[in-house]
Amino acid sequence: MFHDVQTANRWRSVMLLVLAFSLLVGVGAAVTYYLDAGFAGLLIAVVIAVGSTWNAYWNSDKIALRITGAKRVDASTHPQLLNVVEEMRLASGLPMPAVAVIEDPAPNAFATGRDPQHATVAVTTGLLERMNREQLQGVLAHELAHVGNRDTLVATLAVTIAGTLTILCDLAWRMSAFGGSTSRRRSNDGGGQLQAILLVVAVVAIIVAPIAAQLLHAAVSRRREQLADATAVAYTRNPAGLRSALEVLQHDSTVVRHTSRATAHLWIESPLDRDRSMWNRLFDTHPPLAERIAVLQAMERTAPATPPG
Hints:
By secondary structure, this protein is mainly alpha-helical.
């Protein structure tokens, strides 16, 4: 069953990213038309988008570790943690990542790094205190699954696209306020009905795009979490470990102190997805823990637990 979950979520993530890129191109064209900026304006927008993505790809791990206060550790200070990471990286076939610990009572963990050769897995002291070895295996397998599935790249692209769209739309409004909008210029030119329709479409795109971008980012993140859960089961061959760990998180109300919107999507449980109203669920970067637990329980029924030896 977990192979089916892996395949389905991998393709859905790809489709969502393609849709996000298409939205970026469409909104770039809409902003260019609205501002009457021509090809040069669109080219500038593309350069900004590429530059933002490149910078985020190379520096997102440093930013995440600095924001959370993660400190790198080794086997001399955290032998069990390093032993479990080594065990899971052997099961996954990945290079050994750097390991960091965050002084925080809330149980949580995340992985970051631009590729498997430059990855870091970070856990909180709260997680180390609350999890037994089997649960820790499940959590670390989930984080290494993010590394193996190149989720850092996917998440960086999703966040950057959302941010770039917001900047483009804000730029359009500011420039129209200070320099006069295309609508006024075109009306003075006696533009035809087609131009009026295109202008309305451009304005609607500029208004809706930031919300659509955030929804796409959230959808991509949710799919990657489901994929990481399924991949973790493939690594451990033991759905019960991760399921039990998620149950611990479900019953714990402690919130990570050092976090922000920029890093919330990295954690195994988002520190910001506590409001379960219907509106806020649309923007959640993680599926509900109850939903993830139910999927893992179904995996337990179809694949008897066989912990790695």
